[in-house]
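Q: Got a minute? One more chain.
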Amino acid sequence: MGVEAALHGAAAEAELHGALSLQPHVAGAFFALAACTVALAALLAVARTRPPWWCDCAVCEAYLTASWAGEFDNLCDWYAHLLRRSPSQTVHVHVLRNVLTANPVTVDHMLRARFDNYPKGKPFSAILADLLGRGIFNVDGDAWLFQRKLAAAELASPALRAFASGVVASELRGRLVPLLDSACSHDDDGGKVLDLQDVFRRFAFDCICKISFGLDPGCLELSMPVSAFVDAFDTASMLSARRATAPLQIIWRLKRFFNVGDERKLRESVRLVDGFAAEVTRQRHKLGGAASGSDLLSRFMGSISDEKYLRDIVVSFVLAGRDTVASALTAFFLLLSDHPEVAAAIRDEVSRVAGDDDNDRPSFSKLKDMHYVHAALYESMRLFPPVQFDSKFAAGDDTLPDGTAVAKGTRVTYHAYAMGRMESVWGPDCSEFRPERWLRDGQFVPVSPYRYPVFQAGVRVCVGKDLALMEMKAVIVAVVRSFDIEAIGRSSRRPKFAPGLTATFAGGLPVRVRRRPRGVSGHSPPT
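A: Always. Here it is, folded:
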């Protein structure tokens, strides 16, 4: 009996030990089941009540199901189609709480008349906070005003403009033109195929690093691999832009909290971007900081000691100076490939203004005298703006000039890409690439920035506009008068864009390059 009792006691103790060891697992399972039940109940509640922004209209259904992709290659082309059909040139995508407009009067309302009611807003800042932080493109109020005043003062200084002009001329003479020359076809070999988009991104990255940080990454050496930072920056830009397409912010916020999917990739990419920015500021400190150079960062370091703030400024410089310039130049040469008569007119003007010396890079003043070049660049950006749209968030209830009611917290977007394709804005030939529309008696004549908001408008107009135009025009002049560029398998009439904060062509822009005979202007001789 004693042995039997002992065996029963041991068995009971073993059962108790087993039960205790299972208790955490059982508790975890019950917790997971409870969480799933709560989540399911919440989803059912949402489905029953339908939040006020929910809509089953044709536009929202097409957005949520992506059925628009059956007819359009790009979301921006679908939006342009909707805005053309709208009598007010304004549409509301209710599931995104997003009002989009291509109406110049409404753009004026947002960017000038009611500027205070349409800041970037906290929702926008949250979407880009991991990448841009407190940089100028992601803040409002005093933080924005401080950076803007400092940047505007520095960018307007003759010393910085001369420094920037010298950097661009050096990159053209020492890297871009020799690179294109080495890719030229000879006899019947067909020549190399270059991805011109990649070339311009590398060129613009080298230029902005020299101008903004006083450092030379040497990216335009095609034998060099693209730096880990550039890849990380592109990935972070694409994934940050993707956040804005989610119908609910909670979707990407949950992914971010659990560090899964796109948000995990974004975090890894931003970590590399942070490392690059830290190295840039470390190098500037090593070289003497604010007193060490003519670059923009050195000048900012004289007023800012917060390293995290400097990191955000570095990233903003790269976004402004590389991505937008490269985007505009890529689109320009794609259009030029389809319109050789425009290239011929550019060569005629360059020959007239700067002469035929192929080694003479036009000065800043000569570039300003090239009105047709200026018109062709503006016309290209009308059709292919580097930043296709810009969003603000209504700080309070409002009514747009076209009668559209805007509730507090609504995202309001002016769509520059769509505006360039509106007959109501540009006439029946709006889809044509025609630089002459900007000229009167051979002189460039600008239009209202609210009709052409490529550089934004009002108090938030781009402070680096003149510097960017100088750089792009210098590239156009140097390349067009020395080379013929032929796009391969691409057309400006049906582009395909990759997701990102700036317009980027999916698959790049493959081209063949041919060296033009020296001293020959106008059309190339037949081949």
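A: The two ends are 111 Å apart (CA to CA).
Q: Perfect, thanks.
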